[in-house]
Amino acid sequence: MNEKTKRRGLGRGLSALMGDEGEDYAALDRVRSTKDVPVDKLRPNKFQPRRYFNEKKATELADSIREKGVLEPLLVRRVESDPTCYEIVAGERRWRAAQKAQLHQVPVIIKDLDDAEALEISLIENIQREDLTPLDQAEGYQRLKADFNYTQDQTGRLVGKSRSHVANMLRLLSLPNSVKAYLADGRLSAGHARALVTADDPAKLAIRIVNQSLNVREAEKITKKPRRDVPSPAKDPDTLALARDISDALGLKVDLKFLGEKKGGEVKITYATLEQLDEICKRLCSQGE
Asked: Which long-range contacts (CB under 8 A, 24 or more apart) does 145-153 make?
């Protein structure tokens, strides 16, 4: 997927926050300030939800930038304490890759944003990227909830996900740090992690999943708690005696089950052959003649 396609897929939440419903960055260039800025005049985003940067993908992006340049401008805002510098709101990966490619300048779009707007845009832009780790997504959702009082429904609509997806991702934050580390470096997927959330010892099971390279279905099997069957209540002597009397009369196995005062009960007759079934029918029908 190219950069333009990704850009169009950011959804209503990001474009609404930027005040450009239905517009792409190409249109923004015509109405907002754009310029090339030295890479050393840019500062990383203090609200950046991404904690893990994939080195392999960063190298691939740097190679592409070295050959073709930065095709999509970074979104920045001015640093209040130093108006000659800018804080990155969206595009930190491109900035890092540009430095790796030894570029001296990168194109930027300058936007006047307060802290709240910068945080929301940064979270939405990153959450909607497919390469964001599950843990980074979960932490992003949590910050929307904690800092902006977003409900799960509101968060889902904002980032184009279902409410259940948001709820499941938030549950990942309850996992032990050792399991989160596996999530961060990609050794566990979101599916693995969801299976571990309800496990009695998720840290121990996570090690087993990683060491044995178990897929999600296999992980769900080992984390599933064994079903505890509730034993049937003991039958009273009178019920057992009556069952034996009927069994002796029919010459077949009979079981009586009492279901309660209002529900009555069940009589179960077990037969092995059609001849035995025919005999049961004859006896039942003959009683009415």
From this structure: 145/170, 147/116, 147/119, 148/116, 148/119, 148/120
3-state secondary structure of 18: coil
Q: β-strand 34-38 against 264-270: which pairing, if any?
A: unpaired
Token pair belonging to 178:
């050792």
Please check whether residue 200 is in contact with residue 222, taking contact to mean a CB–CB distance below 8 angstroms.
no
Q: Is 14 helix (H, G, I), strand (E, B) or coil?
A: helix
Task: Compute how many other C-beta atoms are within 10 angstroms of the C-beta atom of residue 119.
Answer: 22
Q: Which entry of 3, 21, 72, 92 is annotated as an active-site residue?
A: 92
Concerning whether 92 is annotated as a catalytic residue, the answer is yes
- Which residues are within 8 A (CB) of 8 and not within 5 positions of it... i.e. 6 or more apart? 24
By residue count, the chain amounts to 289
Which among 68, 62, 177, 238 is positioned nearest to 188, based on CA atoms? Answer: 177
Distant-in-sequence, close-in-space partners of 186: CB < 8 Å, separation ≥ 6: 54, 133
Q: In whole angstroms, what separates CA 73 from the centre of its chain?
A: 30
* Domains detected in the chain: 3-132 (3.90.1530.30), 175-223 (no CATH), 237-286 (no CATH)
Residues 6+ apart with CB under 8 A from 84: 41
Q: What is the pLDDT along the chain (289 residues), one digit of tens a residue?
A: 444 444 444 444 555 555 544 344 444 444 456 789 999 999 988 777 666 666 777 888 889 999 888 888 999 998 888 888 999 998 888 999 999 999 999 999 998 888 878 877 887 777 666 567 788 888 888 888 888 788 999 888 888 889 999 999 999 999 999 999 998 888 999 899 999 998 889 999 999 999 999 999 999 888 886 666 555 566 777 788 888 888 888 788 888 887 777 778 888 888 888 887 888 888 777 755 5
